[in-house]
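Subject: Sanity check before I submit

Could someone independently write out the structure tokens for this chain? I want to compare against mine line by line before I put it in a report. The sequence has 333 residues.
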Amino acid sequence: MIPARSPVRSQIYPALALVLLGLSLGCPAQQYPAKPVRIVVPTSAGGGNDFMARLAGQKLGERLGQQFIVDNRPGAGGVTGTLQVAKSVPDGYTLLLGFVGQLAMRPHVEKVPYDPLKDFTGVSLLASGWQMLAVHPSLPVRSVKQLIALARARPGELTFASANIYTTGHLAGELFNSLTGVRIEPIHYKGSGAASIAVLAGEVHMVFTAISSVLPHVQAKRLAALATTSPARSAFAPDVPTFAEAGVRGLETSNWYGLAAPAATSREIIDRLHGELARITATPDYRQQVEQHGLERQSSTPGEFAVFLQAEYDKWGRVIKSLKLDKSVTGER
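---
Independent answer below. Compare away.
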């Protein structure tokens, strides 16, 4: 005789199946990351972007128990690596080290194959820092005033290195030209590390770049610092005047760094990454390491990142339009 089917069991089994199904659907976000995560840096190794990606990746790896691998993809002023992330699968395993150049500057100068405001979701800001103008010791100037006088006496002969075209270093130099009426020619490199090395080797006369990139060389007397783009003297270089103090007003430019993901990445993964970064950036160790590189610790929610990026995008759009840069310049070294 076949036992009658229990009405209780007939209700429990379907309910249990639905619970298990729900748990299985939630597993991908709960288990993230289940394999190594790649952080694409769209510049060469050795600069501020590279440092921030490695620091954030190391800390995230320690907390989440997976490798966060830094993948340097320089080229086309940051476009190559940025596009790679924009087109990647939005599963949280390919992230972007975002910075002001490729997200807020270059799109105003030429058509880029990505939309910085629509193709990415910001996870969190990581750090920011002002810039410094440093010259090779062989250049006979030790002040901004002396540099302007020399540039006027030798129009078009002096050169400055920039970490890619249409990045902060490039536009700071172009702003300097515009504000002072001189013409110092830009030479473009694939990243701030390469730009600094070029100045150290004497290939170019000077560099506008992050304080973090050149401060060790200034302290070692291999480069001479003339001014910073900060509104007040930097705590990292208190003996170096600001451009405003040196008589050049309106030259306040900063670098910022943040972690972003492809736009369609799930909110659960974005929130997981943001939560861990919020804890990481609040630690004394993180702050100390950031400050050792001449940067200031930053943190933000994904929503705050979006508002910040929109403001930076709009600001640099106005600056670039006023400079009337030659959009045909695309070469880099």
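---
OP: Matches mine. For the report I'm noting this point. DSSP finds eleven helices and ten strands in the chain.
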